[in-house]
Amino acid sequence: MELRDKRILVTGGSDGIGRHICLKLAETGARLAILGRDETRLQAVAEACKAAGASEAIGLTCDLQDPLAIDQTAAQVVERFGGLDILINNAGIWHKAGPLDTIAREMLQATVQT
């Protein structure tokens, strides 16, 4: 599949698997919108993606548990890129909490809602 100049949004792109997804996509020359919660890490990933060959890479902070924030961020991306071709929904809160029956309900909800 040819990904050069494809408009791709990656959630949870500032760290871990999401960061590596972004860097691999950058090598193809894709245009990347990278979402996460940490502005500093997002900007570092966006810069690394540009250096790796992305035709464009922007980092945007977004709390994926907030529907209004999602709508606003999606509108920003569509306005900037003129639409989207691919969504990679990688975001997720991960809690090192032990067995399932010991995890607080709020933690489980936060994990599922991202």
Automatic annotation (TrEMBL):
The UniProt transmembrane annotation reads none
Gene Ontology CC: membrane
Q: Molecular function (GO) terms listed? A: oxidoreductase activity
Q: Which terms are listed as keywords in the entry?
A: Oxidoreductase
Which family is this sequence assigned to?
A: Belongs to the short-chain dehydrogenases/reductases (SDR) family.
Q: What is this protein called?
A: Uncharacterized protein
